[in-house]
Amino acid sequence: MTDYAGPQHPAIKGGKMAHGYETGRLNLPFVGIATFGKYDYQPDWSAIDADVAVVGAPFDFGTQWRPGARFGPRAIREASTLFAFGHAGAYDHEDDVTYLGEGTRIVDIGDADIVHTDTEKSHARIEDAVRAIRAAGALPVVLGGDHSVNIPCVRAFDDHGPIHILQIDAHLDFVDERHGVRHGHGNPMRRAAEQDHVTGLSQFGIRNVSSTAKDGYTDARAMGSDILSVRQIRALGVDAVVDRIPADVDIYLTIDIDGFDPSIAPGTGTPSHGGFLYYEVLELIAAVAKRQRIVGIDLVEVAPDYDQTGGTAILAAQLLLNVIGRILHARIGS
Q1: 218-234 pLDDT per residue, tens
Q2: CB-based contacts of 291: which residues, under 8 Å, 6+ apart?
Q3: DSSP labels for 252-320?
Q4: Phi, psi for 291 (deg, rounded to 5)
Q5: CATH code at 60?
Q6: Residue 22's domain spans which residues?
Q7: Quick one: 167 and 282 in the same domain?
Q8: Contact 312, 267 (CB under 8 A)
Q9: How many structural domains comprise the chain?
C-alpha cells in the first residue's frame, strides 16, 4: 500500500513514496475535469484574473442544415487535455520559443447559459460573457457553437474602439436577411460590417458553392471586405496576404472550422472541399499576431458527432493553444 493521499494540484512536486513512485499526480489527459487545456476553472465572472479567459457558447440554433455545434465547446475542451500533459509550456524547435510557459495565466470560465429556441436571450448571454472577460482585461476566447455566436461577440467590443475582422471560413456569411432571419449562421459578417466599431473585414478561405449569392459579395466589398479564396492565398503567399490586412487597427479573429479542408476537419455541419491545411492558417495568424494586437477570438462550427475520430476537435484545440501562445508571446515581446 502506498502513501498516496488523494488528489493534489498537478504542479506539486515531491519526493519518493515507499515503492519509489513520485508524489503528486501524473495528471494524464484522460484524468480529471476537462477544462480547456486543464487550466483553472473560474465560475465567478466578476473574479477573472488572467491574461486569457475561455468561454463556451454552445448554441447552434442558427444552423441551416446539420446541427450539432452546440457540442463543440465540450469536444474542444476534451481534446485540449491531450496538449496539457507533460512538461510546462510548448517548445517549438522551429521558432526556438517555448509558448504557454511559466507565467501563462489562462482560465476557463465555463459556458454562457443558453435558452433553448431563444436566439436573442442566448446571444445576450454570450455577449455578457465576452463583456465580463473584457472588463477583467483578459483576451476572450470563445468556443462555438455555430457562427451566429460571432454576432454577440463582436457586439461586445462596441466600447473598444476600431477593430478589423479577420475571418477564416469557407463561406462568406454575408446574408442580410433570409425569410426574416437576421441572426443565423449565414449572417454574422453582415452584422459585423454594420457595426460602427468595425472598420472592415478580411474574409479568407471563401470558396466554391457558397451560402451567399453574387450580390452578397458585391455588398461585402462595398462595405469594406477583402475576399480571398484558398487558392488565391496560396498563390500570393503569407507575407503578401498579411500586407493586405490594415496594420493600424486591432484584430478580432473568427475561425470557422470549415475553413479547413474536410480531409482534416470533417466534424462540421457544412464541410467544403478545397480548404486550408493546419500550418497555412497557423502561419497566417502568427504573422498577424507579431504585427498587431489580436483582441478577441472565436472558433466555431465544430460538430463532433460528424467525426468519430475526434480529429476535428483536436485540430481546433491544437490551433487555439498555438494561436494563444503566439499572441501572448508577441505581447511580451512588444
Answers
A1: 999 999 999 999 999 99
A2: 242, 247
A3: EEEEEGGGB-TTT---SSS--SS-B-HHHHHHHHHHHHHHS-EEEEEEE---GGG-TT-HHHHHHHHHH
A4: -95, -35
A5: 3.40.800.10
A6: 1-32
A7: yes
A8: yes
A9: 2
